[in-house]
Amino acid sequence: MYTHCLLIIIIIITTTNIPHTRSDCVFVFSSASLSECELKCQPHHSGPSYDSLQEVFDRKPFRPAVNLSNPTSANISFTLYAVLGVNEKTQILTTFLWLRMYWFHEFLIWDPDICDGVTKISLPVNNLWMPDIIVYEFVDDDVSQACPYVYVNHTGHIRYDRMLRLVSACNLEIFSFPFDIQNCTFTFGSYMHTIKDVRVKTALPFDQMSDNSKRYLEASGEWELVVILGEEGILKFGIDEWDIITFWVVIKRRPILYVVNLLIPSSFLMIIDILSFYLPPHSVDRASFKMTLILGYTVFLLIMNDLLPSTANGTPIIGIYFSVCLALMVISLLETVIITNVLHHNSMKYRDVPHWVQVVVLKYIGRLICYKWPEEMPKSEVTKTDSNDPWTINTSHTTSSQLSANSVCLSGGVAVPELVEICEDLRAMRSHLNVLQHAERLQDQWCHVGYVLDFLLFRIYLIIITCYALVIISMWSIWMYH
Where does the secretion signal sit in this chain (predicted)? Predict the structure, then answer.
């Protein structure tokens, strides 16, 4: 109490010895403590005097509060100007922000009427106390140019604008790439001052910050802004509490680049692979054509590998799509190998088609897939021969023909050498024609078995690709509109 009274007496004595002018510093005291101080203004000079400002600059290390039990209020808003990069492997988002921050300085107050109507001045930010507001997700140094000045209002409110290159950690989900939507968090708060010293609030509503960012965000990049959401909260750590503001920045990738460079070429190669089933398997080397397609698809994947994101947490669905497409091409090649084996290998061995193969493949499967039999060989005549063909030998008359020939050759009980030689030649020709006719009949049967299996496997392959494409499109659609 004695000290307080002595301080008041000293101030009164000092002020009485100095002649007052209309621009002197006015100290207003209460019975408890100092509450407010206005800056001095000199005659014929606009704004506060340099000496009074220098006194404020000397107090830079101290929080600008007359009563230190009252916290300093800081208000924050930002505008998302550009998304500079998204690194899926390191889970880092790089953005460029226009940051605006307000706080109240109790020692920078003056009366505009006394100070020649000046209501706002600019001061070096390095000479003033500044709240230590940081972004908690910050993982790299800020290399953007800082603004060296702040605007100070006559009411003591300071506005600080700066550009911020923010490199922040973000949990990136790449499963639905390239139709992915990312939700990254920016948490603003004081690094050292607790809630008792610094209070952090928003300077603008969250929807207004979102609209401003959509208006100024560069539209030529890979990402577009969906919305900016936010929430004010308190961070508790032990017995201390910090005032924080959490922003959720939702961005969506523009997929046109990846659709043109990845999905469309891959779809073209798959369509060519499907159309290769219409190549006649008995006259064209379909296996070589499919192997060339697989080689081309492999080279395509190697070239496009740099465009695909890679993380240790998961694989994007487009990578699974490419792997399954390659597997389907390999399955198509195996199907071609099986059909080629049926058409050539079994027919060249002159083996009869087993009865169960005829029943299962030619009868039931052929009817199931609506297989159309050639007009020159209907299904009912697969194992029959045409008796009207002059080159067709009817084996039922072979014995009688041989007996007739023998009787002619042995007419009169005397064998004519010329006739005997002619008869032997006829027997050899008949035997050779019988072998050729039997081989042709077996080859036709195996060809029809191969054609039926080829039609069946082609339809199964087409159904699998169609179902797979529908599943991929559905999953992408669900992730886009989730």
Answer: 1-23
